[in-house]
Design the sequence.
């Protein structure tokens, strides 16, 4: 499921369709998707660095030239697979955005699930984690698109909730930026891996950071009403 989220114009949230897969140059051709299917399987089993164009071509019974018809470079395959995986993470936000509860609870739920999935990649899916690390360290545009879309999704959650009605338009976006920045050590693949090596109680560490974020979403005084 492709997540359509608001886009950004000068920091103001507006309604536009922005599927993450577009950032990797998705094609409508069935062969394009079939090649990505094969690449994804190989990446999971032997890793993206060991996977060759020849491996992918052999799996689909095509030549190297046929693969290059759909992917002009080897790197574009990496980006395409990463975009798929990143989109699945954003689907988590899509699922939780419609929860019948407060924005704070929805934001906390999304952060907890995304962190849990990221930790699972570090521990149980090293080849998948390696591609996320490559995307971060090599500064791939689709990696930036993932975090931009995540930020916009949080802004949408807050902008629609009565409990955070004080956050509208650019205010919701800037608050969402703050959430993602504050939680980056729990979401960024490289920072998360390092944190997992140092922290003995990852769950408690995560809960403490989420609690810190939620305090910003629910300030005790709004509109100068304290003490009245």
Sequence:
């Amino acid at each position: 499921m492709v997540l359509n989220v608001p886009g950004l114009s000068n920091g103001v949230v507006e309604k536009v369709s922005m599927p993450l897969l577009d950032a990797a140059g998705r094609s409508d051709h069935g062969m394009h998707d079939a090649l990505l299917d094969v690449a994804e399987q190989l990446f999971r089993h032997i890793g993206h660095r060991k996977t060759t164009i020849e491996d992918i071509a052999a799996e689909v019974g095509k030549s190297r030239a046929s693969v290059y018809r759909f992917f002009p470079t080897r790197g574009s395959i990496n980006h395409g697979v990463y975009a798929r995986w990143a989109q699945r993470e954003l689907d988590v936000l899509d699922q939780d955005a419609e929860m019948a509860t407060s924005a704070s609870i929805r934001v906390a739920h999304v952060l907890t699930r995304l962190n849990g999935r990221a930790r699972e990649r570090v521990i149980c899916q090293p080849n998948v984690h390696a591609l996320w690390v490559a995307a971060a360290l090599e500064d791939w545009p689709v990696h930036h698109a993932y975090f931009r879309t995540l930020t916009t999704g949080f802004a949408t959650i807050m902008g629609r909730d009565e409990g955070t009605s004080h956050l509208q338009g650019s205010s919701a976006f800037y608050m969402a930026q703050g959430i993602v920045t504050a939680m980056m050590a729990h979401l960024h693949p490289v920072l998360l891996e390092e944190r997992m090596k140092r922290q003995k109680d990852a769950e408690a560490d995560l809960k403490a950071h989420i609690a810190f974020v939620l305090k910003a979403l629910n300030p005790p005084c709004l509109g100068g009403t304290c003490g009245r």
In short: The chain has two domains: 25-72, 79-219. The chain is about 65% helix and 5% strand.
